[in-house]
Design a protein that fits this description.
Two copies of one chain form a homodimer. By secondary structure, chain A is mainly α. Chain A has a single domain, classed as Orthogonal Bundle (Farnesyl Diphosphate Synthase), CATH 1.10.600. In chain A, 74% of the residues lie in helices and 1% in strands.
Amino acid sequence: MTSQVAPVSLAVLQHRVRPELDRVSDELARIVRSDFPLIGDANAHLLQMRGKLFRPTLLLLAAQAVDRLDHRKVTLAATVELIHVATLVHDDSVDHSALRRGQPTINARFSHQIAVIMGDYLYSHAIIELVRLGDLDPLRVMSRVTNEMTVGEMRELDAHDVLDYPEESYDALIMAKTASLMSGACEVGAHDGDQGDRDALRRYGLHLGMAFQITDDLLDYTETESVTGKPTGLDLREHKITLPLILALPQMSPEERATVERLMSDLRPPDSLINTVIATVEARGGIAAARARAAEFAARAHVELQALPAGVAREALADCITYSIERRS
Amino acid sequence: MTSQVAPVSLAVLQHRVRPELDRVSDELARIVRSDFPLIGDANAHLLQMRGKLFRPTLLLLAAQAVDRLDHRKVTLAATVELIHVATLVHDDSVDHSALRRGQPTINARFSHQIAVIMGDYLYSHAIIELVRLGDLDPLRVMSRVTNEMTVGEMRELDAHDVLDYPEESYDALIMAKTASLMSGACEVGAHDGDQGDRDALRRYGLHLGMAFQITDDLLDYTETESVTGKPTGLDLREHKITLPLILALPQMSPEERATVERLMSDLRPPDSLINTVIATVEARGGIAAARARAAEFAARAHVELQALPAGVAREALADCITYSIERRS
């Protein structure tokens, strides 16, 4: 079920929960609505950016897999997306990113100030909505996950010492930054199913999230700007150390390592230097090795699904794994 | 009970809840603890800044006033302070402030990135802790209040058109930014008391908060750097429109208003211009009128206290009002 399979389109795997996903978009608009013009403008900008709703999809499919897909899951799915968007807004502000999904970020379109406040606005609305649902359980999961994501962000700020950045630190970083929310989405989706199914879906989401983020980091090494909507090599340009580089480094010659160090100590590394390091990472097997790690996590996610009742939702969750490691953007 | 009364010291009015306040500090340290070094460093910096714990004091006194001061109130008081600190950390980052309580802010001591992430870290820990207490009611109050504070922040960013900034907008701003959290602290403190007491304390906190913030804004016009720990006229320097200016403007001559406009359109207004406007605001009665507004809100807060059982806690809450409008820093 890994790289030998044809790419799965998100639209196809979302087909099973399409009506619910449309309602998630409506719920999102309802939850964030504000009469205050500045917030209304920022909301409008965020809503027209239209994310892929991958985390709500996971939540709804997890609910469907345990036969508990009710209207409350639609609202829960909207709060998960809201937490995701709040994180992206702060992330982009922290990273000074100008583009997201090919569109200006809140910090670029408005200001850093507005990005900081909007992130808080969106996150507090997610909490208000979870409280309104009247159940402490999803709140417990989502507040823990949000906190883990902030720790992941801190780990990311700290990930700059290229010759001393072990794979375990990378795993801890992407677990906190990405896998925790996907895991939380699956857990919350299954939260009034059996404890066994719920645990399986939590672990499924964790492995899926690891595979998803490794693939994301690979795209920075393999895809051109027209596909990702962002320049290839952006992570290297920003001195972010990701798995392909970590796995290639031990195979590099002293000269090649010196080149990597030169890039990392250059505040504005030239394109030629970035392209050289990308080529070296590929030549030293970093890309293939990172793909293999993503496939390992994907395989573990598949194992977790075996515990669930067979059916269309379980199949769609399996497709989510394939999508996570085969996607091109 | 207003300006004719001798200043009340915070230490004296905190005397009634001193043991609980000491435990609030311990709880704060416990809740934010992290093994990740960068977060540990930021925590250590924040904890040694030692706020005045005014909001926890209000919460504990409210609990004492309705005879429900138990150990859970200590944890609730810590979460209220945590939400306050999280807001200050983001606030300082948004405002690019370098000093807070005479010490470097997180954005100054570490970076803007770390300030954004730390604020999220602290806020999500407050939610985790509220969830752990297992009661949706304080969560409902605190998530609403946090959201109101973000709207207040947005209002503040928008408060720059000096000739078209009505007092109602200022009231809405300080209600959201300051009074909402003080009101929430009082409401949560009283939350397992009678509904009537709880409502009275919520309204008490709201009026107290309004008086508190008007007084804060007055200090910017009246106190010198050595007392507030920040330069006098900072709000004017940053083009923040507060009540003394709003109330003085209608009494100003066209020349005086032109001077105010000149300050507001000057990206780096010189000290002389700031001093001129401060003098004009005082001469046109803006400071006296703002003091009168603070006294009005203080009086309304006193009225709410009359509904509560008489006793030392109610007296201490009355002292909190006096402190709010008499303080010099």
